[in-house]
Amino acid sequence: MEALKAAITSAGMSRSLLPDPVMREKVSRIERIPSLPTLYLELVRQLQTIETPVVEIAATVSRDVGMTTQILKIVNSAFFGLPQPTSNVTEAISFLGIDLVKHLVLAVGVFSQFENRKLGGLSLETLWQHSIRTANAAKWIARRESAGRVVIEDALAAGLLHDLGKLVIAHNYPERCEALGQRALANSVEWLAEERKEFGFDHAQVGGYLLGLWGLPPAVVEAVAFHHVPIRSKDAKFSALTAVHVVNSLVQNQRPSHGGIAPPTVDMLYLSKIGHAEALAAWREELKDAPTI
User: Per residue of the chain (293 residues), what is the pLDDT tens digit?
Assistant: First the structure.
């Protein structure tokens, strides 16, 4: 019943994220969108049971060779600090945790649907690495702020999926996407600004809209939809949105070169609104040494 309520709420949020009917009509014309991975749906069903042993989850994941390879690659990366490399799926899941694995299955399954597709100059691998880095750092910040298990999990999921809309737009409009990227580079402006000029909507709105239709938790939907404009959130406390918004900016600003395209900035008015403006300096300093994948 709770899952149904959340799905209904998320579906309602999808409409509220695009209140302008003209904008909603434009987004609804996007034809090629990814589907929820079958393996993810199977894991969700398994996890709805009272108790699902790790070994059962591992057995389910292991049936998908490509997914198994990706999970092991991620768990053995510097991001997660495994004491020693492992090729055992059960060990990997035990280390990462079932909830993290569920989110990774969703993200990997969605990203894989864009392999070998024209993406208007976007690099699928670069976007994936950025998403993993953002997710891990967002989880870290949420833990540092003692945000609670649900907020930490939502921050992780939103971090993994925050740029999903970029892939959807690039897959449907590769030529227009490549052109807007060139304009952003030439004018040294944010990608988001050129998206809005070109399409009348942006990747954050598209991603949030899609996740809402899929029935993901409302906090995840909002974190994705508003990760560039957190001030639009009615929430006045630390949330998954806070973590993803801040980390997305810090991670991109840490790059030696952003290709000439202006990286996003942190919304200090929003941080002041939720009482966390003073925390930014510490977050920035501690993320400097975050490992790369």
Answer: 444 444 444 445 556 676 666 666 767 778 788 999 999 999 888 888 767 788 999 999 999 988 888 888 888 876 666 778 888 899 888 888 888 888 989 999 999 999 888 888 889 998 998 998 899 899 989 999 989 999 999 999 999 999 999 999 999 999 999 999 888 888 888 888 889 999 989 999 999 999 998 989 999 999 999 999 999 999 899 999 999 999 999 988 776 555 557 788 999 999 999 999 999 999 988 887 655 44
How large is the C-alpha radius of gyration of the chain?
A: 18
Structure tokens at 293: 């994948």
Residue pair 89/71 in contact by the 8 Å Cβ criterion: yes
Sign, CA dihedral 153-157-159-160, equals positive
Q: Residue 134: which region, alpha, beta or left (left: phi > 0; alpha: psi -120 to 50)?
A: alpha
Of 246, 253, 255, nearest to 278 by C-alpha is 246
* Angle at the Cα of 98 from the Cα atoms of 100 and 10, rounded to 5 degrees: 60
pTM of this prediction exceeds 0.85: yes
293: how many CB neighbours lie within 10 A of its CB? 16
- Rounded CA gap, 140 and 51, in Å? 27
Torsion sign (Cα): 172, 257, 220, 140:
positive
Nearest Cα residue to 173 out of 119, 112, 122, 124? 119
CATH code for the structural domain at 2-34+113-287: 1.10.3210.10
- Domain parsing of the chain, residue ranges: 2-34+113-287
